[in-house]
Design goal:
mainly alpha; flat
């Protein structure tokens, strides 16, 4: 047994489960697929890229809120007040988890030539 055994076993089981789902879906009669919007995947992709580009320049407190806002904007039912509350809450939880519980060296806030937390 080596370190790659568990990931390989999990990947194999996941592939088998996926193949079973595909086979089951092809054998059953069902409703036709409808058109789906690219809005959701597009906003989630934009949020992830924006977070990756901003984490080293503005820190977690600067990069995390807009990631949550971008992801929530993927849904047309989003309300601005809920969006702001969600972004602030998840930012606070992320800072608490990564900095204080896991003790990871992720910068919290970076203001060039003024402040680095």
């Amino acid at each position: 047994m080596g370190p790659a055994l568990l990931p390989r076993a999990v990947a194999t089981l996941l592939a088998l489960a996926g193949a079973g789902l595909v086979a089951g879906g092809l054998m059953k009669e069902g409703d036709m697929l409808t058109r789906w919007s690219l809005r959701g995947p597009l906003f989630v992709f934009i949020a992830l890229v924006a977070f990756a580009l901003s984490i080293r320049t503005v820190g977690l407190a600067g990069g995390r809120p807009h990631r949550g806002a971008d992801q929530r904007a993927a849904s047309p039912e989003t309300r601005p007040r809920e969006l702001l509350l969600f972004a602030l809450l998840v930012t606070a939880l992320s800072i608490g988890l990564f900095r204080f519980i896991l003790h990871l060296p992720i910068p919290i806030l970076i203001i060039p030539r003024l402040l680095v937390l």
